[in-house]
Amino acid sequence: MATILADRPFDLAVVGAGICGLAHALAAARLGKRVVVIDRDAQANGASVRNFGFITVTGQEEDECWRRALRSRDIWVEIAEAAGIPILQRGLLTIARRASARAVIEEFLATPMGHGCKLVEPAALDGYGEGLRTDAIAGALYSPHEIRIESRTAIPRLAAFLAERHGVTFLRETVVHAALPPRLDTSRGRIEAEKIVVCPGDDFNTLHPDRIAAYGLTRCKLHMMRVRAERFDPRLPALMSDLGMVRYLGYAAQPAARALRRELEAEQGAHLANGVHLIVVRSADGSLVVGDSHHYADTPDPFAPSTVDDLILDEYGQVLQGPPPAVVERWIGTYASAPDRLMLIDRPGDDLRIVLITSGTGASTSFAIAEEVIAELYG
Ligand SMILES: Cc1cc2nc3c(=O)[nH]c(=O)nc-3n(C[C@H](O)[C@H](O)[C@H](O)COP(=O)(O)OP(=O)(O)OC[C@H]3O[C@@H](n4cnc5c(N)ncnc54)[C@H](O)[C@@H]3O)c2cc1C
């Protein structure tokens, strides 16, 4: 196999141009390393452009994940302007429809993660924007930590920023068949690089399948929609609700979440069975991205039954006033999922790392994870 790009000796090759791979390219480029990023697709097409672009801090699992989310949020803010990535929303309102959900918020606020957050009484919610069903709300948690970016444009802009400002080389429409430092065998030829980080998203079978198999991973399929809601107040921050409080581990670990779950099982069993919870974020054109659901399979089917979307829109209607919004776009996304961890860093050798985000947290945590991986790789 002929070696390509032989005139450019790379310190680091990154496989995968999703957020995980780009975050590693950024961390290494900031250390002055010569980096090549290789991806099989012509443009980003995986979870990284299908997500909400919601950089979530509050609600992430206590300690490591929460700390990584804060750090990653800071990096998004640091690079946003230079990379031409607008920050479209700031903050989060987690709406408690039930007294038991409000109790979860109260317990959460007493933890260190509650720093900077506050409980908002229903009568004060209009101060954050109008249109919430305040008559059916028991309170809300306001968090100032979150930001929202539009992933489908932000990821290409981040890649362009890495190429233009940091001299990162991108090799697209190129499949990596083997990655063992100091070389990678690709569909275009051999590439030499001192160190390699593999960020394959939810492809467990192409590179180092034996190493990845040891983690017992599966995949999660999510339903997403873009809607037009004429009367959505642009002042509102991102929204979540009770169903999210039993999914997001920062809330779900609170003792009061047990009672909330029992109520949800009795009253919203179909939502729970389909892994439905509510996230509503706003785009620059005023449309909203609304989701999502969670169905697990080794190979998720590509079908998106409307009954699942109806459950998501039902929860939307419990939180927001007005007629059902018009759905203008639907898509599904998949991500890697592990039974026991939110992410993994596998170390097959001194100069090789395999990094997978095994939960729905990659947009929120990849920058911090990559900083740690690159710092360790380069001592
Ligand atoms: C619908 C949905 C909503 C989500 N919402 C959020 C959210 O709001 N906030 C949040 O923090 N996270 C969210 N997530 C999770 C987040 O999007 C993922 O954790 C993250 O995008 C994973 O990034 P990645 O780079 O690992 O994977 P991907 O984006 O899938 O990228 C992997 C890349 O690797 C390439 N690749 C793999 N193998 C090879 C090979 N052998 N050769 C060449 N190329 C290869 C693929 O082509 C792909 O481009 C959501 C996910 C989904 C699906």
Could you characterize the architecture of this molecule?
This protein has about 375 residues and is an alpha+beta fold. The protein has two domains: about 10-50 and about 150-215 and about 340-375, FAD/NAD(P)-binding domain, CATH 3.50.50.60; about 90-145 and about 220-335, D-Amino Acid Oxidase, subunit A, domain 2 (D-Amino Acid Oxidase, Chain A, domain 2, 2-Layer Sandwich). It is about 30% helix and about 30% strand. The protein contains twelve helices and 18 strands. The strands form two sheets. Strands 3, 4, 5, 6, 11, 12, 13, 14, 15 and 16 form a ten-stranded mixed sheet that branches. Strands 1, 2, 7, 8, 9, 10, 17 and 18 form an eight-stranded mixed sheet that branches. Helix 1 packs parallel to helix 5, helix 1 (about 20-30) packs across helix 12 and helix 3 packs across helix 12. The mean pLDDT is about 95. The structure holds flavin-adenine dinucleotide. Flavin-adenine dinucleotide binds near residues 18, 46, 47, 52 and 357.
